[in-house]
Amino acid sequence: MNKEISQAVIRRMPRYYRYLGELIDEGVERISSNELSSRMKVTASQIRQDLNNFGGFGQQGYGYNVQYLYEEIGKIMGLNEQHNIIVIGAGNLGQAIANYMKFEKLGFVIIGLFDVDTKLSGKKIRGIPILMLDEIEDFLATHKVDIAALTMPKKNADEVANQLVQLGVHAIWNFAHVDLELLDESVVVENVHLSDSLMQLSYNIVKSKKEL
Amino acid sequence: MNKEISQAVIRRMPRYYRYLGELIDEGVERISSNELSSRMKVTASQIRQDLNNFGGFGQQGYGYNVQYLYEEIGKIMGLNEQHNIIVIGAGNLGQAIANYMKFEKLGFVIIGLFDVDTKLSGKKIRGIPILMLDEIEDFLATHKVDIAALTMPKKNADEVANQLVQLGVHAIWNFAHVDLELLDESVVVENVHLSDSLMQLSYNIVKSKKEL
Q1: pLDDT (tens digit, 9 = 90+) per residue, A19-54?
Q2: Which pTM was predicted?
Q3: Which residues of A touch B108 (CB under 8 A)?
Q4: Which of B142, B137, B188 is nearest to B164 (CA)?
Q5: Chain B residues touching A146 at Cβ < 8 A
């Protein structure tokens, strides 16, 4: 389990987790890599290769135990622990994230929103308080925070991110449209760049028109 | 220009575009692949390889003309044309997307939001009307729509997506946490699965703790 697993494999794991969750909902107890392959539209050999990175799970001729595989992938992805999240930027995007109940089912619990707009002070989103950014030091001193989601403009993103890191935050879910320049390189960052995603979509639109 | 360019290269292009835009803002006219490499923290050979997919743009010993490269990448990504977007689901996430002015600067113009919640009917977000989903057929008959963003629950996502496709929509920006099952396979889909992104983050948190 100590070998390096490629980020490409890791990117595919949440999708396995989602499909296995759907199979559990349908009452399916065992599935062969061929059946899973036709559902997920990836090759059975890809599935076997991906899962072999984590030690296999399958039994020749028996297929995979759905519940077991689901739980093991959950553990690999760290979903057996609760992750507390704060959201920096309580605009529409920050509020959308705070409102999304699904994250909680995966163990990601939003415990506070922060903003600089005093009009938002004291408001709550689904019971989660909106605090002012200058209260963050106190908050971090008294709450366990595992992830900070940055849903703020890119202009101050570096400054705020580095402040959070100095105060002990080790993981950032970055929606600001910038590659963060962090002073501490051990911090884990996951970017969601919506503009980049739109550009990829528009590239594929142009390409599909050419193919017609 | 007819050869197939890998999606991995395409995924990197928006980042080039963003960095080149920043260089333009700073008044930089020319940049070598080495300088661009140290800014973007990718190897110079990666940069040369990526850009060679589109015919190069660089001149040996002169580096890249920043403005020219920026515009050419913009054209490759289809940003020289306006893309009209409708947003299906006018909750927080839909409203966040409608409020995000930056997309417009890239040529992505949101022209309508749709929902089934009659309380939202007649409201406007940044001047963009919220309409009821049963008005969509009329709307699509009278408006050019290039992209539908699905910011609705996954339960009805397939049904609505297929309805949109039948009405002539050819590209979907899917935020619903499901792989869409579309009857027409020529439709271009780009997924933004926020739960998947959180799971990748949490995997990397677990991994970084093990490395300590």
Answers
A1: 999 999 999 999 998 999 999 999 999 998 888 887
A2: 0.91
A3: 198, 202
A4: B137
A5: 205
